[in-house]
Amino acid sequence: MFSNKLKAGAEFPSLVVPCRRRGEADISKPEEPATWRMIVVYRGRHCPLCTRYLNELEGYVDRLNAIDVDLAVVSGDSEAQLREHMSRLDVTFPIYHGLSIQQMESLGLYISHPRSEQETDHPFPEPGLFVINEKGTLQVVDISNNPFVRPNLESLVSGLEWIRKNDYPIRGTYPD
Question: In this protein, which residues make up the domain named Thioredoxin (predicted)?
């Protein structure tokens, strides 16, 4: 299997997905006044670890906003699946749905088949996290092939605070 992983320092692609309130939205762009965007890709409503992670992420929104990083969260779920999932989420950040398999592949995400119809009815992305800087380039990337490995949110946000305060360069760009 060939995988096309996004490179640190590369331009982040446009990522247009369905939006419950606006029809469609390009979630690769930060909402003003933020200058950076963090995109969290989660597996879907069927994943209790995702639900817990997203609820925990809510506690970091103010710290992210303080360093001009806004947040967008997306899965491959349908709008109906997202609506059902919202009943178990206590979050203020925008959650999008309808990430296509082609988009998952373009982001270099791992994709899984459901284990049963009770889990979900479509292939879904494994977790991914992308931080896009003010130039539209990929500052931080984390891609996992299972729900058990995700960035620790305290470490991640503390690290982003340090990066922003110290103008820390993009890492992992060798040989460029």
Answer: 6-165
